[in-house]
Amino acid sequence: MTTAEQPPAPRKKTGRRPGGADTRRTVLEAARAEFAARGYEKASMRAIGRAAGVDAALLHHYFGSKDRLFMAALEFPVQPKAAVAQLLEGDRAVVGERVAEFVLTLWEQPGVLDRLMALVRAAATTEQVARLMREFVQEELVARIAAELQVEQPELRAELMFSQIVGLAMARYVIGVEPLASATRAELVPLLAPTFQGYLGGA
Amino acid sequence: MTTAEQPPAPRKKTGRRPGGADTRRTVLEAARAEFAARGYEKASMRAIGRAAGVDAALLHHYFGSKDRLFMAALEFPVQPKAAVAQLLEGDRAVVGERVAEFVLTLWEQPGVLDRLMALVRAAATTEQVARLMREFVQEELVARIAAELQVEQPELRAELMFSQIVGLAMARYVIGVEPLASATRAELVPLLAPTFQGYLGGA
DNA sequence: GAGTGAATTCATCATGTGATGAGTTTCTCG
DNA sequence: CGAGAAACTCATCACATGATGAATTCACTC
Question: How high does pLDDT run on average in chain B?
Fold first, then answer.
């Protein structure tokens, strides 16, 4: 009985793997998914490793620490400067609609939702991430937007718009309240547009 | 040297304390503060105990588990049925303003902010709490509100209002973006009122 | 005043975590 | 081909966590 060791067991082997698999990308995708689904604290290096089919120590080899893995997994695919500029140019009477359309379309892009949720979940619990987000909002969004608005309290208005966007993400994806969670972009844009339009100063 | 035991050291003693201190309430307040500040996962029983001046085992004695402590700490001081009814009666042309005023005033009540933050932070990370919130929103809020609205897609509109409220809490208290975080109720109500009014169907 | 039960702490367990360092295998470049 | 670097795993550490059970002290009732 002691000599019964058949081949069926897919043995774990130490050392470098054959074939140039893009392990780094695999790991980043697994991390993104895990952070998105469970939040920063609950997502464990071990679980991420398991999801990527890799030992947890490899994550440290690549990224050094959980913090840095998180940062690497988050890298955002949008140039805020360009996006803001593009949204603000054009007919100001329909800027609210442009914003609504832009945000909802952005969230439909592959990989974006994972990043968004990871960010929101982490910001809710980790002061460090909240600070990062605060600085980003203030410097990249509010400052640029407020400079272009011809209304009283432009910062406050820009931030209220931001708050509606965050709230939408929470209600729709984190809390998942129906029918909001399943509503289509076409259904939501006409309802959100007036809100954004109002904040940005148009009647 | 072995007999040197002076009074300065505030000895920890085992056994029941003298004087009928309301330890349970103290613990609940400490728990609320801790859950609000750090979120469910990061708030440890030990830290809560320390903040309440009590051994962590006592929390288990009183509440059985961390889950149940959390639930006990959260008990909400608002009758949703009554609140919704009160907000919806009266002049529908200014219902948006009533809602804005109500929410911002509620958050100023002592103890409410702690509960709100604890809830939001936990909902963001713990699926169980998210589900609780989802059910609450759907059954207690959306159902009641939608029944009273004379517009298309009343549920969607009620939930968008909810999303703006959640987003406001996130932006203001969790992320803490300025000047939103420090804005007064008087500054915010006129900006929020049209949004709520729009969602609830008034022009 | 004795005795029951609640309030409270202490010591301890099992578990999961992020991190580290050493060892093994493959790739790449001369 | 041979050497060094990169990719990868294993074993392990130190630590924090939630939970449990026994032990001690006080309050309250008969």
Answer: 91
Contacts of B153 in chain A (CB under 8 A): 179, 187, 191
Give tens-digit pLDDT for A81-130: 999 999 999 899 999 999 999 999 999 999 999 999 999 999 999 999 99
C-alpha torsion A196→A175→B108→A130, nearest 10? -80
The pTM for the full model equals: 0.90
From the number of C-beta atoms within 10 Å of its C-beta (0-12, 13-18, 19+), residue B15 rates as exposed
Q: Specify whether the CB–CB gap between A125 and A39 falls below 8 A.
A: yes
**Quick one: tokens of B42?**
């990061």
C-alpha pair distances (Å), A183 with each of A43, A176, B164:
29, 11, 16
Which residue matches tokens 């076409």?
Answer: A186
Q: How far is the CA of B33 from the C1' of D14 (A)?
A: 29
Q: Tens digit of pLDDT for each residue in B127-152? A: 999 999 999 999 999 999 999 998 99
> CA of B71 vs C1' of C17, distance in Å?
26
For residue A156, give the nearest of B121, B187, B199 by CB distance. B187
CB atoms within 10 A of CB A39: 25
Measured in residues, chain B has a length of 203
Interval B55-114: pLDDT, tens: 999 999 999 999 999 999 998 878 899 999 999 998 999 999 999 999 999 999 999 999
Q: How many Cβ atoms are within 10 Å of B110's Cβ, its own excluded?
A: 7
Cβ-contact B185, B103 below 8 angstroms: no
CB A104 within 8 A of CB A196: no
Query: HEC profile for chain A?
Result: CCCCCCCCCCCCCCCCCCCCCCHHHHHHHHHHHHHHHHHHHHCCHHHHHHHHCCCHHHHHHHHCCHHHHHHHHHCCCCCHHHHHHHHHCCCHHHHHHHHHHHHHHHHHCCCHHHHHHHHHHHHHHCHHHHHHHHHHHHHHHHHHHHHHCCCCCHHHHHHHHHHHHHHHHHHHHHHCCCCHHHCCHHHHHHHHHHHHHHHCCCC
